[in-house]
Known about the structure:
Blueprint lengths: L1 H14 L15 E3 L8 E4 L3 H11 L6 H17 L4 E2 L8 E6 L4 H7 L7 H8 L2 E8 L6 H10 L3 H4 L5 E3 L11 E3 L11 H7 L4 E3 L13 H8 L2 E5 L9 E4 L4 E4 L2 E6 L2 E7 L4 E5 L8 E4 L1 E12 L2 E11 L8 E4 L6 E2 L20 H6 L13 H28 L4 E6 L3 H11 L8 H26 L9 E5 L5 E8 H7 L5 E2 L2 E2 L6 E2 L7 E4 L11 H16 L11 E6 L16 E5 L2 E5 L8 E3 L6 E2 L11 E7 L10 E2 L3 H9 L15
Parallel strand pairs: 4-20, 4-21, 5-33, 8-9, 8-20, 22-29
Antiparallel strand pairs: 1-2, 2-3, 5-32, 6-7, 9-19, 10-18, 11-12, 12-13, 13-14, 14-15, 16-17, 17-18, 21-32, 22-30, 22-31, 23-24, 25-26, 26-28, 27-28
Helix pairs in contact: 5-13, 11-13, 12-13
Amino acid sequence: MMERLGWRIRSLESTLTSEDGHRFGVASGAEDRIALPTSLRLTLPLTNRNILRSMKRRFFSLRSTPSRFAELLALLLIVVSFWPGTILTGSETRPRAVILSLDGNAYWFMQTLLSRGRASTLQRVLAAYHFSSIHPCIPNFPSKTAPGHATLFTGTYAHIHGVTGNRVFVLPLEEHDLLKTTGGFDGTVLLVEPIWITAARQGIKTVVHQATHAFPMPVTGEKERRLISQFLTLVDGYGQSFGRDAVITFDELESVGDGRYALNVGQSRFFLRRGRGETLLISRTEDFRSPQSLGRGLARRISLTVQTPRGSMSCYLAWLDGSLDGKDLKLYHSRPSRRKSNHASLFAERSALPPFVPNGASRAYERGDLGRPLPLGGNGRAERLYLETLLAVVENAEAFSLWLQKKAGRGELEIYYLPIPDEPLHNWAGFLLPESPLYDPATAETYWRFMETLMDRIARFIDRVIFHGGRSVPDVFFLVTDHGMDYAIKDFHVNEALARKGFLTKRGRFIDLHRTAILYPPVEGFFLKVNARSYAQGMVSEKEKDQLLLRVERALLTLRDSTTGGLIVRNVWPARLWQEVGSGGPRGGELYLELQPGYYPTWRLQDGKIVTTREATASGVHGYWPFRRTMWGAFLIASSSVQYHIEGNIRQTQLVPTVAQLLNIRPSRRVTAPPLAR
Length: 678
């Protein structure tokens, strides 16, 4: 009997295995319950129909006997023991895992933040939920947002998952030239499925509140998308944004008489006038039917629905400063956006939703629209306004997350994302890192206080959204990031250098690919790409490639900054040497760059200039060699039920196998990294 039973188990397993080696445990909303004694009762997802049908064929024929039913019962118990995605309804429950990615949460930043001598809200929250410690995490190379998150969520590096920059080549290169790129955050550019697809495929209830590479869903076919969506709620807002945020001054308003003014947001026209006390009235019509009341300050912001070329979107409007009849008026609206979900009905009642707020007013701050920044002689007012817009990002994310939890429920796997501290560090990192020439203790202290306020607000987000004040505590909470952050004071125009050395030809302000042997492509992936003859508009033969690369390497390593006389490039290496952190692959390059401190590479041409000075308010950068200390990300774990023993550095690729082990699911066969030791 046991021999026949083993054959039947192998047969059933083979019917439920995809080409990628996944065992399917995807279900529709209903469940099939099999009548067993209470102590053995279990629930099988309905899409385990393959098992049920096979059992029916084999055991419930006209010739079925009591012994065959006993055989069926034994088979069920064995299948349950090895099949991921089976849901027990007795006392045994599957652990819950929650992941929060804080973009740009550098290891040095968290170390300094947690050691500044005061008990921060973040420290208290993490301590309350058995925070283990802060660990350095080695990122993907290039250490950028899209590649970093692709590595975190697939468990593979860029040469395997295919995301080599925030923009990537359009494949195949035989049909597209090296200047043709597409967004690196798009789900279709992933060559390995992310953990939320893997989990949902195996019957894990998964809720993704925000993640990169969410849409289009990286699955094959509408049927598979529907099946996976039975266990998956997926939300994204960044792919559904249009235009930019803006500060509106009095001069930009249009007077329509009688103390009324018109302003345009997106393609929509609004009217405003003075209200009672310290308020402004905002209306869609000139007669002010059903106006909204706008108070002074970011905390009293209001939501607006606006039309864009991509349809209806939402944003918030805030009254930052000044008065309606004064030249110092400052109104601010966030970037028009809307959320997208794999469940079309989820956002049927959009009026009840807080608007999606992609980012704070970073661009407005850099342009000086919020006032003069501190590095340019300001008094801190611009920074305080900027901080308020960053707090609004967290507040709106918290409100939406709590709304989604009520709507979709809590998941056995939940994923969250916040664009902080990346955004303010892009502005201020050069003033926070002591090794930076921009560092000043007084300015650094001011910025650290702003960052502490912001991170305290994120701590409250964690407490309220992730832990519900201790009422809904996941088994393991992973606080992860995509990359670290360094400083830069100069831009290195790589293609200008290649043109000067004779490897690249310019035609006016553009690159002439027909006469260019190698270039730094617009994917900004810290690599050079040979313009091979097999590519559209290519010119380099396979025989010429090795010699070309040697000549380019020598030329770059001897390149000097004309203003300082110092070397610009620290190291150049072929892709094959460092595949362990992501170099190479179908969308990678042949030569990778590591620059001297303070320089940042860019593909843009600059009228023959190889080096230019960066704006002081854009002093934070990332993308560098991942073993550079400033590129290390912070990895934190909070758990009362699972203890992880971590020695040395963590790799980003270890998140997926660790989560898979916790949830008892099988990751993609492309994942080879070990889970964290328990």
